Amino acid sequence: MAEKIEQVIGVIGAGSMGSAIARGLVASGAAAPERVLVANPSAGKLAPLAELGIKTFTSNEELLAQGPDAVVLAVKPQVLPGVLAEHTDGLAGRLVISIAAGVSVASLEASLASSRVVRAMPNLPVQVLSGATAVCPGSRATKEDLDLSLAIFSALGSAVVLREDQLDAEGAVVGCGPAYVALLVDDLTRAGVEHGLPAAACRELVLSTMRGVAEQLLASGEHPRAYMEKVTSPGGTTAAGLRAMESGMFEVACAGVDAALRRTRELSEAAGGKTTDD
Ligand SMILES: NC(=O)C1=CN([C@@H]2O[C@H](COP(=O)(O)OP(=O)(O)OC[C@H]3O[C@@H](n4cnc5c(N)ncnc54)[C@H](OP(=O)(O)O)[C@@H]3O)[C@@H](O)[C@H]2O)C=CC1
Ligand SMILES: O=C(O)[C@@H]1CCC=N1
Where is the Pyrroline-5-carboxylate reductase dimerisation domain (predicted)? Predict the structure, then answer.
């Protein structure tokens, strides 16, 4: 059972992540729907949230006028500087949780001199309460701010505290991770189809396999290599499959994460470029 959150949580931006966070907070039972406020310029994205009892606004000012205790900024990094500049006063005195890729605590704190900042990097499965989030408190954040941030993201899956210099890498692995995993699902399915399996059935079985592996590894804490050994009979089929796959897999994973990290740094520069060292 998720820890009960009594504070009022505002979410600015009702795209993939803002909607997922708002839905997840309500679905987990952590927050009563009337304590979750969401603002987005286009009303179409708000209607399904309003149906859940969440309070919705097409103007950020109106949301901020409700006096939320914490505000999650869930807009694109390219849009964020404009939102910070426009709502510096409305965000003053509040806990501001930014999930924008690559936007540093220093940059957020420089724009929001009177807010307490926490930076977080979640992933999309927060919507189904199986998300994974790293949080990092800013220099003005209190213990209560970190506790509230952890309560929010723990209600939505796993949440850990990381140092800020680890957050971009966590984003490149975990924030982007659902897309990498979906790619693997699709590639394995296509490989099955090449050998005559029906696509829909193959995809369902691949997905079920992934869920099963994740559940077993999470429950046991076992190292993935030890788990692999249990599947691999000496001289059997898995050994042959792994031998063919393994040579390229780590290089592909590193290339993907490196590219995501390079792009994170580009977005960081475009959003003001301040790092913790500036
Ligand atoms: N997608 C993901 O898996 C992850 C994303 N992130 C981060 O989350 C943030 C949001 O990403 P994502 O949800 O994918 O993006 P989306 O484009 O799906 O959502 C952004 C939302 O912000 C709204 N918006 C635009 N301008 C404003 C404004 N001035 N005020 C309020 N809302 C506004 C958009 O509205 P409209 O389209 O109606 O104009 C849109 O609904 C990004 O910073 C990203 O780096 C972090 C981890 C994972
Ligand atoms: O693609 C992006 O930029 C965002 C950040 C992490 C996942 N999605």
Answer: 164-267
